[in-house]
Structure formats: structure tokens, C-alpha cells
């Protein structure tokens, strides 16, 4: 699908004139500019991105500009930056923000350890802001650490959901179709003027429904649900094989696999406290169930928590840890066991500060095989709910299955 | 804003040609047809609605057609029907469904007690389906209980969020601008043809962002969040004033008011089991906290639950009931209290069948005023989370604050 500068449907709202629109929800998220002289070829192109983030989000109905609205307690723009970082061929990212949000943006970059980001002050309009971002890339004097790119991706700060393939398509399109009359040094007075007078060829790049833009409050709800779903795709069951925990652990694993047929459930053993963290494939996993059967209460859980604390993997997403305890309610009253587990509440408060959500789960380890299966299934339902909701108000609670 | 039949932007997708579009998210949700001879005036117009619901929802990425997708366990189309029912001046609603979904639709109408609904079989295209719906209204022989309307609202089954004011505007616009060359009896061969050949005047009615259409899976997430938010706007605290529960009940009320500054918190007394249900303004409220202090455990909660069961108010939305129990943890071990409260789990399973979500909450009734305040605040946070999430996996759990 190709369209000339004026082809296709009219943009529904002010935006970069070089962006290609293909319907409200399938719009290509990024417009691209390639500098004069950038030739398509096998060598690696120097690619940069400009994120206009100077908007005030008046349609959102909340006082915070939408790019700074928290999603799972992290500002939306941080998710967009994280997605751009995954495309390691993007050398620099320029975020354009208003003066009043400059410090807040610096704090976000520092807190979430975003790399290769430069901040530039927004202009009066969105086009002026993009211009400021482009000038920062073109003008080496302004910021010596930025290198002049051959292709610039202009991406909405409030479109956190896209994948690298789409970006690559956009960059490829820029190389093949892009902007031969366009010069980063001199041509960026206004993108609208460039479009009007330079007859820049625009290429429509097919997007995916995920590219949608967070505009209304309901979009924040949807974004939060999508992110929760994405980080709930893998559960790791941690147990100590030396202590005969394997049997019950694997039973729980099987039931979780049945309950959550789209979720990958793996099990891991922690051999020693302080052992090599690489034993667990933590990087892909934000959900852990720690099986404590014969070992003293919380020993396995504490080992895991120490590892998680050291790793800092909870920086970007809250990690759920369910400390599962097994007890035959016929032999010992669950309330007695509860007494000994009550300190999980204080412990959970400490973990909360590190973005780790700790919950307790007491499962009736019935000698009746059928009852045990039912209790494990109930436990799996509770674990699933805790992982899906990631509700920080319920940390430290001791749930019963 | 007025536009002729071909004015404005092109519809993004197939739809009734008479619908007026004003952008992806602010599109007027309903198109209207007024029959020849319908005069604007002070007398009440006979208004009916046609809901084309024959789509298969291929963009949703789930096998169920989107209008039947569950939101808080109730099919989306039931919310749309409920919203139409609130406009009592709409006499008849015709839902157009495919043959294979006819029985499912009948079950929905019966289960959720929707009134004045007729079912008509869908055509091959959306336009044909609308035609079938209109013909059912025009042709008294087909269904004798339907009266011939003067204005027909055509409304997407997957737009559950609109208010009566918007509908009234649409109907008013139909009266003033509408369709004078148009005749329900003879003119509805195809709406597209009617538009093309009859030069029907179309009137653009300004919509609200709430009118958006559930199209993608993320829209279902958003719909669920919006509905959860709407039914969490009021909390009723129930207590027995004769048993000196008022003090602690009002303390909790004050803290809930502080924690939830947008939520209306009221308190009510239940005098006798089986007393007049009208004592509590149940109809607006889907959230209850039952304070049990000096009374035997669960007495207040049981009274309330009996009333709720009788009322059937949980038909449309799940009702949250938090049974709050106070105990000085220094005097009595919380685990002992837990023992006596454990049967809440079985009780909650029974209530679940009636769409009532019952949770237990044990609050440390410390003699230290400051500690009590902190515990109540913690209790309020837990109550808020339970109400907001409405998580059926956690029913019957006994949480501790």
C-alpha cells in the first residue's frame, strides 16, 4: 500500500505530517525521516528516535499528562522507552518534554535506568517539538554525545505496544521510499511545510492492532491489563529436591499447567542460599511459587527472595512470590500454623519496597488423594488470581486452600 | 455540525450508511430513521431500537463473537440492553442475531430478565440484518406484540456505554432533520441505496468518548475496568446500633471516606433479621461492609446476606460483602479467632452461586488509639482492593489488618 503526501484518509488529529495513517487503530506508529544521502544497503544504518512527549493529555480526564500516568506504578513513557531499548540498533533516543516536566523525566530515566536518552525542551506545538528533537540530533554542538543519524523514527510516547519487526519495516520503508529531497540540516523548519513543498514520498506501513495510542482513561485500563497479561505468561515453582518436596511441588505444577493452559509453568531447585542466581531463568519470569513442605517455614522463600533482591529484576515490573505451605489440617489446626506464619505480613512490607509482592498460601495436605487434588486445584486458582491481579493491598495475607 | 450523506470522513468500517461519523472515538453510536409522516411535536414519539448483533468479532482474537464475550461474567450485549432499558421511552428493542446464536441470545434475555426484546434472524451482511430488524418493526404480521414505531434507533450491540441524553439528542435530530423521503414500509431495501438515491439529510450528533465500540480484546479489558469502577462508587457500612458497634463502625466509615475520596460511603443499621429491605438503599449499592463487634460472629453479615439473596439485586452485577470482625490481638490470638471464622469459606461458596462475593476481614482492635487508626486504615485499603477487583478466586478468605 502506497500513498502520496495527500493520499489516504485525513489524520484524525494533529500529528507529524509524514506519518502514514491507515485507520484509527492500525495506524503505523512511527513516521520516519531519512537524511539526504542515506542509501539503502547492507551496512548498518545509524538510526535514532524522537519521542514528542510534551502533550498535556487533556482528553484523558486526569491532571497528569498521559505519558506520565502510572501503569503498574511505572509511568507509561517508561514502557515506550523500554520497548525502544529492545531494538538495539536504535543508537539514540531524544525525548522532547516541556520545561516543567524536565526534572520528572530525568527522574524516570534514572529510576528505571534507561540508556542513551537525551532530553530536549518542547516547542509550542507538536511540530515544533519534533523539530527541536530533530535539531538536537542534527546539531552536534548542542549535545556532543549524540551522533548524527541517517534515519530518524518519530514515535508517540504514548504508544508503548509495538514490536521490533514493525520498527524495522518502518526503517526499511524510509530507506527505500524516503525523503530524498529532505535534509536534516536545513529542511526541518516545519514538517508540514516539508510535506507541502518538498513532495516527500510517503510509504504506508501496515501496523498491528497493538500499535494503538493511549488517549483516554480507558486506554490506561487496557494498557495495564495487557501488561499484566504479558508478565503473567510464566510461573516458576521453586522447591528443594533434597527435602522430598518434589512430589507435592510437581503435583502443584501439573495442576497449574491444567488451570493455565496458556501459561508456561517450570520448576526449579534452589540448592544453597547464595547460590548462583543463573540457576533460575529469572529474566523471563515475574511469578514464583515457593514450596515449603518439610523444610523450616519460609526457608525456600527466603532463599528466593534474597536472590530476587540481589538481581534487581523487579525494577521494571512487580514480581509476585507466593510462599506455599503444606499442612494436614486433620493433624494440625490451620490456625496454629497460621500463628507461626503471621510474620509474613511484616516481611511482605519490606519486600514491597523492592517491588516484590509476597503472599502466603496454606494448602491442606490431605491424605485423601482426591481431596488433595481438589485443594491443590483451589491453591492453583488462588495463585492464578494473585499473579493476574498483582494487588499490592493484599501482600502479606495468608490465604487458605 | 451538519454533514450531507457523503460529507465528513469515510466510515472506517462497514456500518449503516445513515450513521454519522465524527472521528474514531467520538462517533455517534446510533443512527436513526424516522418514518414518513413522523412530525416533531410535544406528543411522545413511538421509538424502537434495532441492535444488529450478527457479527463474528474476528478482530477480537477470541472465538466468541464480541457481543457475547463475558464482562464480569455477563455477556457484553446484556450491558447494552440494560442501558437501552434505562431509556423507558424506547418501546421495543429488536436484536438481530445469526441462527446459531438465537438460543444463546434467548437464554441471555431470560437469565438477565431483559424486557421488550424481540429476536430476528440476521442477514448475510450487516445492512441486510438491519433491514430484517426494521422489517420486523414495520410488519405487524410477523410479530404482533411489536408496534410500528415513528423513530428507529440503530445501535451497535457492542457499544454498552452511552447515556440517555445522547439517545434523546439522536432521536430529536431524527425528528428535526430526518428522512422525510424515507418510508419504513417500502424504502428499506438497503440503507446504502436509500442513502444514495433518496438524498436523505443526515445530522451529525456530537457523541461522548464513552460511546466507543468494543472491537479489540483490549476494549474488553477496558469495558471490565469501567464497569468495575462504576459499581464501586458507593459503599454501605452495615452495623447494629444497639450493640455499641456504632463507634468502631463510624471510625471505619471515616477512614474509608478519606481513603476513597471519590466514593460515597454511607452507614445503615439492620434492626431485625427479615426486616424491611427498603431500610437499605440497595439498588444503588453493590458493596457492603458488615461490622461484627459485640454481636455473635456473622450475625450482622447473615442478616444482610439474607436480604441480598431475597432482593435479587446481584442479578446484573456481582455484589461484594466484607464481613469485618474486630478483636484485640493482645488479648486473644488472631489464630483462635480465625478458627471460629473458618466456616466463612463454605458459606462463601454458597453465596458465590448467587453472584455475591463474600470475604472475611479480621481487624486488630488495639486499645492504642493510634495503632487502631493504622489498623483501620489497613482494613480500608483491603476493603477497597476487594471491591475494586471483585476477584471471585479469593472469596471466603479471611484477611487480616
From TrEMBL, chains A, B:
Gene Ontology BP term (one): protein O-linked glycosylation via mannose
Which Gene3D superfamilies is this protein grouped with? Spore Coat Polysaccharide Biosynthesis Protein SpsA, Chain A
What are its GO cellular component terms? cytosol
Q: What reactions does this protein catalyze?
A: D-ribose 5-phosphate + CTP + H(+) = CDP-D-ribose + diphosphate; D-ribulose 5-phosphate + CTP + H(+) = CDP-D-ribulose + diphosphate; D-ribitol 5-phosphate + CTP + H(+) = CDP-L-ribitol + diphosphate
A molecular-function term among this protein's GO annotations:
D-ribitol-5-phosphate cytidylyltransferase activity
Q: Where is this region: Disordered?
A: 1-21
Judged by the first EC level, this protein's enzyme class is: transferase
Q: In which pathway does it act?
A: Protein modification; protein glycosylation
Q: Where in the cell is it found?
A: Cytoplasm, Cytosol
UniProt cross-references to InterPro entries, sorted A to Z: IspD/TarI (IPR034683), ISPD_C (IPR040635), ISPD_synthase_CS (IPR018294), Nucleotide-diphossugar_trans (IPR029044)
Concerning SUPFAM superfamilies, the annotation shows:
Nucleotide-diphospho-sugar transferases (SSF53448)
Q: Which Pfam families does the entry link to?
A: IspD, ISPD_C
Q: Which UniProt keywords apply?
A: Cytoplasm, Nucleotidyltransferase, Transferase
Write down the PANTHER family for this protein, in alphabetical order. D-RIBITOL-5-PHOSPHATE CYTIDYLYLTRANSFERASE
Subunit info here reads:
Homodimer.
Q: What is this protein called?
A: D-ribitol-5-phosphate cytidylyltransferase
- This protein's gene is called CRPPA
